[in-house]
């Protein structure tokens, strides 16, 4: 048989196979799209969803919000080369107007998400419709109301954090950072939801022995408020990084992290509540010792009290809000709105605004004030904003860390005891002869590299001088110059520093020098 004839037969067989597959419903024909919401954080009323030609009609689950949906996340299979239109009713829990200007997202790998090209609400028809301008390029696509954040991702991120030398278990946790288990139960679709590990851990530089601020942060109280977890994730990633500000913050603070308060509701794809108490808002029962019978809230609440001794300086509860509200905002009681941390964050994030909290309901932030005795407590609401992707929320979280560091830092405090004094001066001049190669950014700072350019130079001396004069006056700084210990003399110090290369990097003189002992 000739090669040409064999090739023709193979090609014919392939065409017949594709045609037969289409007839049997296993091919790529329109109308053969299948939907699935049965996975971690998935949410779809499959029984009332359907596919007709190129139109995929979706039904949202109404747990907690009777008759209304507030979270949507599913996979669509057999879509390669197809360009379907998805449609869902606009019976959204906070009103159909919350869907105005909203954009749904899709992903092929549940990691990288893109916004649909076309998103439109028809108030007259009572629908929200979304589609793309080009066909899908893979056979399976994941579709969601907003950027999903599964309980599995939280577990994986905690496991990654556990490998950091800056992370340790809390008093209430074990070596695996587990502080307790969720209750589990049966969800609104009749599926068994298994009990899950719940986590908490501490981030700090244990070698820094000076006084430290206590900061407690948590997320995942409401099942569908996913971008809040990305913001908290960004904060943790910053805290564990080699960034100079992160290192200084670890030296100045202990940060207690509780990443997922409601793992059952998150896994089950709930709109807002827990599986154990589907008709109760978990952010209305933060009241020890009973916590309204909310077992998962009790695990975290009791851990917070035990781990911190019921005494923190800052408490931040990360939440999310829907489209059409007020952008990203802090829900802060008027007594706390002038706090230097919050004012610094507003400078770093000009688009963030402030809303006044009353602290009447038994919310997490009220628990922070009344039971953790926080000097500052807040709920931070991130919004599902069209075009803002994961990187945006990671950056937002990092700016929380930078704001805390800039609030706690005392300029030129190289020994991290929260006071600028003669001991810092002695350590600074000793560091003039230190080889900074191989040191971390924080170690180099402690050796006198105040501008972070990798060398001790006359610029660093200028930063120290300005900070000391601002704190005590020029006469006090002049007094430091007299008792310089041998073998280093002031002349040799100045010559050594002046010989180092000058840096063009931004100085830190203008940073806040608030001291909250």
UniProtKB/TrEMBL annotation:
Q: Which cofactor does it need?
A: Zn(2+)
The segment(s) forming the Peptidase M14 domain are 155-408
Cited SUPFAM superfamilies = Zn-dependent exopeptidases
Lineage: superkingdom: Bacteria
Q: Name one GO biological process term.
A: proteolysis
Q: Which InterPro entries match?
A: Cytosolic_carboxypeptidase (IPR050821), Pepdidase_M14_N (IPR040626), Peptidase_M14 (IPR000834)
**UniProt GO MF annotations:** metallocarboxypeptidase activity; zinc ion binding
Q: What are the UniProt keywords, alphabetically?
A: Carboxypeptidase, Hydrolase, Protease
Location of the active site: 381 (proton donor/acceptor)
Task: Indicate the family of this protein.
Answer: Belongs to the peptidase M14 family.
PANTHER family with a match to the protein in the record = CYTOSOLIC CARBOXYPEPTIDASE, CYTOSOLIC CARBOXYPEPTIDASE 1
Protein name, please?
Answer: Zinc carboxypeptidase
This chain's source organism reads Adhaeretor mobilis
Species lineage: Bacteria, Pseudomonadati, Planctomycetota, Planctomycetia, Pirellulales
């Amino acid at each position: 048989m000739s090669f040409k004839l064999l090739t023709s037969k193979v090609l014919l067989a392939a065409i017949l196979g594709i045609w037969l597959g289409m007839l049997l419903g296993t091919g790529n024909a329109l109308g053969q799209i299948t939907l699935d919401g049965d996975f971690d954080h998935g949410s779809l009323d499959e029984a009332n969803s359907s596919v007709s030609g190129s139109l995929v009609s979706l039904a949202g689950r109404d747990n907690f919000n009777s008759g209304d949906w507030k979270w949507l996340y599913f996979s669509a299979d057999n879509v390669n080369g197809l360009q379907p239109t998805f449609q869902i009713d606009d019976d959204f829990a906070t009103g159909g107007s919350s869907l105005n200007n909203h954009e749904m997202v899709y992903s092929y790998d549940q990691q990288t998400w893109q916004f649909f090209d076309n998103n439109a609400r028809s108030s007259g028809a009572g629908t929200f419709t979304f589609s793309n301008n080009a066909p899908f390029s893979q056979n399976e696509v994941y579709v969601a109301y907003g950027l999903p954040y599964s309980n599995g991702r939280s577990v994986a991120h905690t496991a990654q954090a556990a490998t950091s030398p800056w992370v340790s278990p809390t008093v209430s946790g074990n070596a695996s950072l587990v502080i307790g288990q969720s209750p589990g139960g049966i969800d609104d679709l009749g599926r068994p939801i298994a009990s899950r590990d719940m986590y908490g851990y501490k981030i700090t530089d244990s070698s820094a022995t000076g006084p430290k601020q206590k900061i407690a942060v948590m997320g995942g109280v409401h099942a569908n408020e996913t971008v809040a977890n990305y913001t908290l994730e960004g904060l943790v990633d910053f805290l564990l990084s080699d960034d100079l500000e992160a290192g200084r913050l670890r030296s100045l603070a202990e940060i207690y992290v509780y990443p997922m308060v409601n793992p059952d509701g998150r896994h089950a794809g709930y709109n807002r509540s827990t599986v154990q108490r589907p008709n109760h808002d978990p952010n209305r029962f933060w009241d020890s010792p009973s916590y309204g019978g909310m077992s998962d809230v009790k695990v975290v609440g009791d851990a917070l009290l035990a781990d911190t001794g019921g005494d923190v300086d800052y408490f931040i509860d990360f939440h999310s809000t829907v489209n059409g509200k007020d952008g990203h905002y802090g829900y802060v009681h008027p007594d706390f709105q002038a706090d230097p941390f919050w004012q610094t964050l507003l400078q770093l994030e000009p688009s963030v605004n402030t809303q006044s909290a009353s602290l009447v309901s038994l919310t997490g932030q009220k628990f922070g004030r009344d039971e953790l005795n926080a000097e500052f407590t807040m709920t931070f609401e991130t919004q599902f904003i069209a075009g803002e992707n994961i990187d945006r929320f990671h950056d937002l979280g990092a700016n929380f860390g930078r704001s805390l560091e800039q609030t706690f830092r005392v300029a030129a405090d190289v020994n991290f005891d929260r006071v600028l004094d003669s001991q810092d001066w002695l350590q600074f001049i000793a560091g003039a002869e230190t080889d900074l190669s191989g040191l971390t950014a924080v170690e180099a700072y402690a050796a006198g590299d105040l501008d972070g350019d990798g060398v001790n130079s006359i610029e660093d001396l200028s930063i120290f001088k300005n900070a000391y004069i601002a704190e005590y006056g020029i006469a006090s700084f002049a007094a430091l110059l007299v008792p310089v210990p041998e073998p280093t003399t002031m002349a040799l110090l100045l010559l050594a520093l002046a010989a180092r290369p000058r840096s063009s990097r931004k100085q830190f003189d203008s940073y806040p020098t608030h001291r909250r002992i």
